[in-house]
Predict the structure.
Amino acid sequence: MSTSARGVILSEAGSEPELIDLIIDDPGPDEVLIKITASGVCHTDLHVKNMNGMGMAFPILLGHEGAGIVEKVGEGVMDLKPGDPVVIAYRAPCEQCPACLRGDPRRCWIALRPKQRIHRASDGRLCSQVLRCGTFATHTVVHSKAAIKMPSEMPLDKACLIACGVITGVGAALNTAPIFPGANVAVFGCGGVGISVIQGARLAHAKRIIAVDLSPTKLQWAKVFGATHTVLAGSGDPVAAVREIADGVGVDFAYEAVGIPLTIKQAVESLAYAGTATHIGLPADEQHVDLNFGNIDTGVYWNKATIKVCHCGDALPSNDFPLLAQLYLQGQLKLDEMVTAKIGLGDVSDAFHAMETGDVLRSVIIL
Ligand SMILES: [Zn+2]
Ligand SMILES: [Zn+2]
């Protein structure tokens, strides 16, 4: 029997998010229907709106940072049952690509997806789901391996943050370019992802964690999450400031969570000899970065810089999500402090506007 639901969709290119009625088919084999209880509002949802659907067919059900309760399970689902609390992973490894087959699922580039089962009630049209999730809704259907069970004591309005922003930042620091104890670290861009890199650096016992941002408010927040030093990017040369704080030689690890050529370049130029710059921020289509290779102090060649790219913290959700929940429950991972606004399903447009104009760490939709 199908399920009546409500959800926030983009109906066509250029349109504003609208809350509408949905009809959801029962989950098929290896799928689960989830009653969403909370969903973070991430920049990627805003990108989907601003980049005309990012290649997905309209209408598009928004949201990909959600948590909820399993309501129905499809045929063959053995490890989940109705009532289980879960966080939805947008990248559940496929188990069939070359990376999965060689036993390296963190490098998988094909995520498991459900069949399309969510219809717009008004005309029956099937909806695309952002990153195979679609969590700005009362209910959604995902692949069963993308529903990661949470400990019963884990509050789901905090657990949802793990699904994208937190795993991306913490994973960059622990998985993509693992920080060694005592390292000097710089983080360019202190939104939800940058703050999570800072948390990862703290968990990895970095010596100095230098937060760089244009916003004094975000730098204050960065300190709450573990930054030991802050650099206000608008006042002077942030590269020189970072290098000076890091013993005058630069940092072992720089993480860039903005996605513009200027900060990508600054992250690389902040490195100490043989350091690693990791790029997390989503760049625009036409972006090129002009990096110097030959300068004796900061050139990529003479500085022996490594440049990496991080997608979703190179996560293995089945392992990493329960670990992050455990760290939260032990008081080592701060999630409560990340929530700067609690909103309803009807407030997505306002939340997008706040992201574009103000200082927001995370707005969380509570259902
Ligand atoms: Zn996201
Ligand atoms: Zn794979």
